[in-house]
């Protein structure tokens, strides 16, 4: 009987438990603030979140910290996938990581290893300090120590939460520079969570709050290469380098714009060389050494994101691209006026001149024998008139039948020559003024062109390569100075070659072959794991989408808007520039006609001039 009585009491207890379920765990203000930050900034865009429970001694767990973590897991588990850790992993496990720590020593147990892959990923830390501090000084000291560890992990997107005894949650972030430009961690109170509400909007406590360097100076190294980086004035003068308006070009204007956005001052170093090739044995200390070994923080000047030195730096996202090409000198095969003589060969022109002279002599001799007097200049003018297709006066026509047959044969001959000349003249207008150039890299190699370059290239024979430390401008000057005397080439971006041609528009004959080597992505080099990388990346993408960088490119890089090279066999409309020789000759004839007309009018009043025309 008593056995059934205990069974009934057990069933009553279960029924009462179903009617009155256990009370849910109370969400502390610290966890509530963290959940609201995650709901605003992480849940809408991320599907995975890492949560780490860290203590100074892994064997002795913090009971309150475990309760807070349990509450977070139950709340967030339905919204995204969670990866939990109670021991520090070797690498940062996700883009967004939540840390629950009870001391700075617990956070210092982390020892993340950053590889090349991790250097291109931006991490965001939300750190909850679970232990309440007895004083403000102690709380700030712990948060400062944690922030220093975050700097060691190359992470600036950090939000720190700490709870006061009154249940008020303080939201902190850190800055690297103070107002005195001392490189030290400075805490900044960005928001307060009280009575279930934040005081400010979610932008105030955003992970990407925007970087500000408080007007502090950053040393900038630069490789001079127009139109990317140029300097107006004497770049060796420190006083002139302090005037940043003298720095110009695509990279120069971009770094000045970034300095204005992120509030830092540019300390411009002296121009440097790339010193690319280790095969040249000298004491060259180039731009890369200034960033690696010296105090320089930024390197500009047409830097490549795919260069062999990229593993030693952090670099921004690409803001511009250009093609690397082989540059060479183009030799002219005829001038603008000489192009008018191309339709006929030398033999045809010689036969035409000889026949015209003979015709003048025959007419002169006939008139001398028949009439006893003759005018050689008049006869030459008649032959020239018929040669270019103009008719003669009726009084000038011969009266003899045999002579008229001879004259008709001459008119038929010059008619055929004019038709043939006009037909072939249109073909000559489509011919370039310059000799055909190699169109592929293999053509350069077969023609034994010597490459003058700063380093050996995998796609060009070493025995045809001459190494030099000279920059693009010096190599252009050398190839331009040699002209037709040698077969030399060099590599360059299209934009520097176009800029050189514009600066030396009257003398430069440099061009590039049709086959491009590769597409060159422009970036800004920074120090390895620099905290400037990701703020620069975001701002560069904004400037690209807004068209501001495109405006800079349009202002400085004229090669982007030139007509591309056309195939030699491709038939294209004849440009007006091809008629420049014809215009020149026509202008001479018209000028002579105008002068003759004016002189003829003046001869009506001037007696000696009238005698000349008579």
UniProtKB/TrEMBL annotation:
It comes from the Eukaryota. Residues 1-17 form the signal peptide. InterPro entries: Insect_Ionotropic_Sensory_Rcpt (IPR052192), LBD_receptor (IPR056198). GO terms for biological process: detection of chemical stimulus involved in sensory perception of bitter taste. SUPFAM superfamilies: Periplasmic binding protein-like II. It is a multi-pass membrane protein. It is found in: Cell membrane. Its main location: membrane. The chain crosses the membrane at residues 340-364, 405-421, 581-602. Residues 21-203 form the Putative ionotropic receptor ligand binding domain. One of its GO terms (cellular component) is plasma membrane. Pfam families: LBD_receptor (PF24061). Keywords: Cell membrane, Glycoprotein, Membrane, Receptor, Signal, Transmembrane, Transmembrane helix. PANTHER family: IONOTROPIC RECEPTOR 11A-RELATED, IONOTROPIC RECEPTOR 20A-RELATED. This is Putative ionotropic receptor ligand binding domain-containing protein. It comes from Drosophila erecta (Fruit fly).
């Amino acid at each position: 009987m008593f056995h059934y009585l205990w069974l009934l009491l057990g069933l009553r207890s279960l029924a009462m438990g179903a009617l009155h379920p256990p009370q849910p765990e109370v969400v502390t203000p610290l966890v509530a603030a963290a959940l609201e930050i995650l709901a605003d900034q992480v849940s809408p865009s991320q599907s995975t979140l890492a949560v780490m429970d860290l203590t100074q001694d892994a064997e002795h767990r913090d009971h309150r910290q475990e309760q807070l973590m349990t509450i977070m897991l139950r709340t967030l588990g339905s919204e995204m996938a969670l990866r939990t850790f109670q021991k520090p992993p070797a690498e940062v496990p996700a883009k967004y990581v939540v840390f629950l720590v009870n001391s700075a020593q617990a956070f210092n147990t982390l020892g993340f290893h950053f590889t090349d892959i991790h250097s291109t990923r931006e991490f965001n830390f939300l750190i909850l300090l679970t232990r309440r501090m007895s004083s403000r000084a102690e709380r700030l000291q712990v948060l400062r120590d944690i922030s220093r560890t975050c700097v060691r992990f190359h992470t600036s997107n950090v939000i720190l939460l700490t709870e006061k005894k009154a249940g008020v949650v303080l939201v902190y972030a850190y800055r690297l520079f103070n107002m005195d430009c001392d490189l030290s961690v400075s805490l900044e109170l960005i928001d307060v969570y009280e009575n279930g509400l934040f005081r400010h909007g979610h932008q105030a406590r955003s992970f990407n709050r925007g970087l500000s360097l408080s007007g502090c100076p950053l040393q900038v190294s630069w490789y001079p290469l127009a139109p990317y980086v140029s300097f107006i004035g004497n770049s060796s003068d420190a006083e002139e380098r302090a005037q940043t308006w003298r720095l110009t070009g695509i990279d120069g204007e971009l770094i000045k714009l970034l300095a204005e956005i992120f509030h830092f001052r540019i300390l411009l170093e002296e121009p440097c060389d790339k010193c690319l090739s280790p095969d040249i044995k000298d004491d060259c200390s180039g731009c890369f050494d200034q960033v690696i070994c010296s105090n320089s923080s930024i390197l500009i000047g047409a830097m490549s994101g795919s260069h062999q030195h990229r593993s030693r730096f952090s670099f921004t996202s690409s803001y511009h691209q250009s093609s690397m090409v082989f540059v060479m000198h183009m030799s002219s095969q005829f001038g603008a006026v000489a192009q008018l003589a191309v339709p006929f060969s030398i033999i045809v022109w010689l036969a035409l001149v000889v026949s015209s002279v003979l015709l003048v002599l025959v007419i002169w001799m006939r008139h001398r024998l028949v009439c006893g007097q003759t005018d050689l200049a008049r006869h030459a003018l008649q032959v020239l008139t018929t040669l270019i297709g103009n008719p003669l006066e009726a009084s000038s026509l011969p009266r003899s039948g045999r002579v008229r047959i001879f004259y008709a044969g001459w008119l038929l001959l010059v008619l055929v020559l004019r038709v043939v000349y006009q037909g072939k003249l249109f073909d000559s207008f489509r011919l370039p003024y310059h000799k055909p150039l190699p169109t592929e890299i293999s053509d350069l190699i077969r023609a034994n062109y010597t490459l003058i370059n700063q380093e050996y290239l995998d796609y060009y024979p070493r025995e045809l390569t001459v190494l030099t430390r000279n920059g693009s401008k010096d190599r252009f000057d050398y190839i331009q100075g040699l002209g037709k005397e040698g077969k030399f080439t060099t590599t360059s971006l299209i934009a520097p070659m176009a800029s050189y041609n514009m600066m030396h528009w009257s003398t430069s004959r440099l061009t590039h072959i049709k086959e491009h080597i590769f597409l060159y992505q422009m970036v800004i080099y920074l120090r390895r794991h620099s905290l400037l990388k990701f703020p620069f990346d975001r701002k560069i993408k904004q400037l690209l989408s807004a068209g501001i960088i495109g405006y800079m490119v349009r202002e400085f890089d004229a090669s982007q808007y030139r007509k591309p090279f056309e195939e030699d066999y491709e038939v294209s409309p004849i440009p007006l520039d091809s008629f420049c020789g014809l215009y020149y000759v026509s202008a001479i004839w018209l000028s002579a006609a105008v002068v003759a007309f004016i002189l003829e009018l003046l001869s009506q009043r001037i007696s000696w001039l009238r005698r000349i025309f008579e």
